[in-house]
Write a structure and sequence with these properties.
heterodimer, A: about 220 residues, mainly alpha, 6 helices, about 80% helix, globular, B: about 35 residues, about 0% strand
Chain lengths: ~220, ~35
């Protein structure tokens, strides 16, 4: 079985499990008393944000490894992770306002966390545009590695923005030094969703990596 | 137990939008990798 086929099966499994997470969130997870059903958006929004940040973190790490080792497999992985991260960023940026409207009374506010996550999305887009604009492989890999490392530097600011700035965005409730501040059943649903989104990330990246490999081979045979 | 605010429509919309984005991306990747 090829890498792309394995990625397809993982993706299919992830999508089926995502349906399972929806069922668990809707039917077997209690509704928060103050926020109502809108709170359940959290089970999609937070794992999407996690996956987007995981994607950018791995773009950055692969970029550093590429610059040190000059191994184009790292460049291909970074490109694959950036494309997948763009999709998860889109989920994060569309589901967030759908929670914000009923809870904050507005779709969007230019506070630090929201603005920085929008930067993250633009960074993904910029990364992909840069790769499309530079045709020479060594230059493309080097330029995009630098941009990928910039994305890695942005991540701690996004995570810590709720501590560093006055912001409307809720504080972390799971990824924090103390124990998660969620009732057990909500925490299980959230962790299941984290697992499913991570599985989808892996399945998507395997397919994108296979595509990048095929595209590099085609370019090499043309050139 | 007290009922929460009636905002289930936002939750449904968010779940549908997330599913559409992820399924659409999965289908696009399937089409792109089909001939590998």
């Amino acid at each position: 079985m090829t890498l792309a086929q394995r990625g397809r099966w993982l993706t299919l499994g992830g999508l089926v499990l995502l349906a399972g997470v929806y069922v668990r969130a809707l039917a077997y997870t209690p509704t928060e008393r103050l926020q109502g059903l809108a709170q359940k958006i959290f089970y999609v929004h937070v794992p999407a944000a996690w996956s987007a940040m995981l994607a950018m973190g791995l773009v950055g790490l692969a970029s550093i490894l590429f610059l040190i080792m000059k191994d184009y497999r790292f460049d291909r992985f970074a490109a694959a992770s950036a494309e997948v991260g763009t999709a998860f960023s889109l989920v994060m940026l569309t589901t967030g306002p759908m929670w914000a409207k009923p809870i904050w009374g507005t779709w969007w506010t230019w506070d630090a966390r929201l603005t920085l996550t929008l930067f993250l999305f633009f960074l993904f887009i910029g990364y992909l545009l840069l790769r499309g604009a530079v045709s020479e492989a060594p230059l493309r890999a080097r330029y995009s590695a630098v941009l990928g490392i910039c994305g890695l530097v942005l991540l701690p600011f996004i995570h810590l923005s709720v501590y560093l700035f006055r912001t409307l965005h809720p504080m972390p409730i799971v990824l924090k030094p103390s124990a998660p501040s969620l009732p057990g059943s909500m925490l299980v649903t959230l962790l299941c969703s984290f697992g499913v989104f991570t599985l989808l990330y892996v399945g998507f990246v395997m397919q994108c990596y296979a595509l990048a490999g095929a595209s590099d081979e085609a370019r090499a045979s043309d050139g | 137990m007290a009922e929460g605010p009636a905002n289930g429509g936002y939750m449904v919309a968010a779940y549908v939008v997330a599913a559409i984005i992820l399924v659409t991306y999965a289908v696009l990747l399937y089409q792109r990798t089909r001939n590998l």
